[in-house]
Design goal:
With about 260 residues, the protein is of the alpha+beta class. The chain contains seven helices and nine strands; from the N terminus they run E-E-H-E-H-H-E-E-E-H-H-H-E-E-H-E.
């Protein structure tokens, strides 16, 4: 929320500096050379885990400022502003279908034709300390890894078109394996073993955070047993975990 005050632009809480910059940039885009107002940010997204907390703040600040100014902004406009603030942004300003998003350009490279298949993800916190994206060096992918990413993207495209959780999870797992070279997780072997033993289809990770996830097909007849077994094993390993659903669900009561 942006409250008009006539005074110099400020933000609450004061450490939300990216949100402050986002509001200022939005006002500059509207032709206001001296940004004003009091920006109030509230939410419960954990910081530094890979949930997109900074993008959440930035997008909220841009939208609140645009609303206050009656400034019409398309998602593409918000993405452009967000990248100027963050250098690398999540695609939270878009909410229609899965997409391939260039985080440092703020450009949608490809929109996939349908939603993800029905997934249940068992999220896992793998590190105790937060990971700050701004402090991470850019990955220097080898040409072999770049070729592998092209194969991975093609697999994701096929998986979404076919509604295949198995193929989608395989692609996510291979992407996570590549990322071990750049942001290695000491618990990766434990997660890999747990996924295999519990019937998970694969693993996914936040490439600049400390969150991982075991991927399950929500249509599986053994879903409950698999999830309970995985939670028992993760609990014995002292890991924090939670469940969340995404993708298409078979009935409206599942959503």
């Amino acid at each position: 929320m942006l409250e008009p005050t006539g005074a110099e632009l400020s933000v609450m809480p004061s450490w939300k500096t990216k949100a402050l910059a986002a509001s200022a940039l939005t006002q500059w885009a509207a032709g206001i050379t001296e940004p004003t107002g009091r920006l109030v940010i509230s939410g419960n997204v954990s910081v530094g885990l890979g949930f997109g907390s900074s993008t959440s703040d930035v997008v909220a600040a841009i939208r609140a400022t645009a609303d206050a100014l009656r400034l019409p902004l398309k998602p593409e406009d918000i993405a452009t502003l967000a990248v100027k603030v963050e250098r690398a942004s999540d695609p939270l300003m878009f909410s229609d279908v899965p997409m391939l998003f260039a985080q440092r350009e703020g450009v949608v490279v490809e929109r996939f034709e349908r939603s993800l298949p029905p997934l249940l993800i068992l999220g896992v916190r793998t590190l105790t300390d937060p990971v700050l994206t701004d402090s991470l060096p850019l990955p220097d992918y080898s040409w072999q890894e770049i070729q592998q990413f092209r194969v991975i993207i093609a697999a994701v495209r096929r998986a979404i078109a076919a509604g295949s959780v198995a193929l989608l999870a395989k692609a996510a797992t291979r992407s996570a394996e590549i990322n071990q070279r750049y942001l290695p997780l000491s618990v990766w072997p434990d997660l890999y073993r747990t996924a295999a033993e519990c019937g998970a289809q694969g693993l996914q990770i936040a490439h600049s955070g400390s969150i991982a996830g075991l991927i399950f097909d929500a249509r599986s007849a053994r879903l409950d047993d698999s999830i309970h077994l995985a939670e028992e094993q993760l609990g014995r390993q002292g890991m924090q975990f939670w469940r969340f659903r995404c993708g298409e669900w078979l009935t409206s009561t599942d959503q």
